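Q: I'm writing up a methods section and want to include an example of the input and output format. Could you take the sequence below and give the corresponding predicted structure tokens, formatted cleanly so I can copy it straight into the document?
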Amino acid sequence: MMLQGAAAGAMVLVSGVAQAIDLRDTSKAVVKLYVTSQSWGARQPWNKSPSSKAVCSAFYIPEGILTNGHCVADNTYIEVEIPGDPDKHEAELVAVNHQVDLALIRLKDENKNPKVKPIMFDELPLLREKVVTVGYPVGGTQISFTEGVVSRIDLMSYAHSGVMSLMVQTDAAINPGNSGGPVFSDRTGGCLGVATQVASGGQGIGYFIPAPVINQFLNDVKNGGIDGIPLLGVFVQPLENPTIRESLKMGPDLSGVRVIFVAKGSTVDGVVQSDDVLLEIDGIKVLNDAKLPFRGDSKIGLMYPVVTKQVGDEITVKISRNGEIIKKKVRLGPYNFKVVPPVPLYDKQPRFFDIGGFIIRAVEPRYIASLGNQVPQTITEYSDTVYGEIDGMEELVVIAEVFAASVNKGYSGWVEDVRVMKINDMDIHKLDDVVQAFAKDTGPYHVIELENKAKIVLDRQELEKEQSAIRMRYNIVPMRW
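A: Here is the clean output for your methods example:
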């Protein structure tokens, strides 16, 4: 149900029990954002796309104005409309963590901030708890209130980033424009989180970011930098089959998951290894179905004790290795160990290297999206590859485009989107290696070797003669290295 205006807000919040909770004053801290954004090109990363405009919601908290990361991604200009103020005011980005779709902004002129009481956060809600979302949906000018109940609390995929973290599902309507607005408990009146997304194809299913995730983000801001959410860096197998548990020397009183692989440089690299059984995470028992016990008889995702902590925090892990029980302390590391990062590259220009009309870059989600339905297997097969899994690989480096010129004649159309393995006999593990490889003096030719065994041979002198002309012809603005 959606009701608009301050009076409607009061009606929604009659709880039918001891007292009514009135959001009319609290909702004065909810503001409307007008955001202009412009993203960099995926295949021609020196160009920018046409600008776009969007409307979102946000609200005052003690640290500033909180909203969704997707509301301000790639922003070039932000304006804030404050209740009761006839003017819009320019704002600027303070911090953003796109992993969990959260951003903090502030007015450029602090004297324009309204005298409102900042909204404070509550704890995780209860299942079936009544909630009220507050915001400015597209199509109206007044603030709106929608009510529903909490239907699920678990680790779920954030649409903005593809990262799995804690999220709450509700049937309260979250419409376009509501994103970034607060979600309140009808039971306590406290703020439970930030409205963020709706289910694709699911009627009446919305999601909000709960307080523990928000507090983790705000602690990052307070500490002076966005380290993002931590992760253990293990890939695991459930152990619901009793025979495999027996083969791993697990007694009948033990439960856990088998470790398949540990990412190089991750939190538990050097502590946990393949075929270990992960028994506990930070004192919480791991169940055989790769879940954790949660609030009595419920279950929650395996990384629940990890994702709301800070990078650098210390936790304990308990493992079984060949029947021996081992307990270790580990310091949590960041979520940055996949060769194709899960989070799209927002807010910054993609790094690339151009030479002789070849545009070479590392693959990330926006680049994959630019391929539409024609994503080649040469890219998809690396989507879950982590550091150290394949010959020291840290980034998936490919040729994104070939701009026709005499020096590259005959190569366009069949060398794109295949992993670059070597350049001038130097192994390519990341984009920085490309720059170093082309700087090598290897005689009359530059030689690029691809994963499909194809070779690109370029005349060094001809390339040096044509490089400036190719850039001018195609308006390529080279990146500084």
